[in-house]
Design goal:
The protein is mainly alpha-helical. 71% of the residues lie in helices and 0% in strands.
Length: 41
């Protein structure tokens, strides 16, 4: 049971870290799918 809780905690830490890291690196879906020639209203 302890190993399962530790695995859940590790998954949460990795997910939050990846979310912050990718947003800071500019890999959000809005930045990847739109360019200068795309007009978004």
């Amino acid at each position: 049971m302890r190993a399962m809780y530790l695995a859940f905690a590790a998954i949460a830490v990795i997910a939050v870290g990846a979310w912050y890291g990718l947003n800071e690196a500019g890999f959000s879906s809005a930045e990847r799918s739109s360019g200068d020639a795309v007009r978004l209203d």
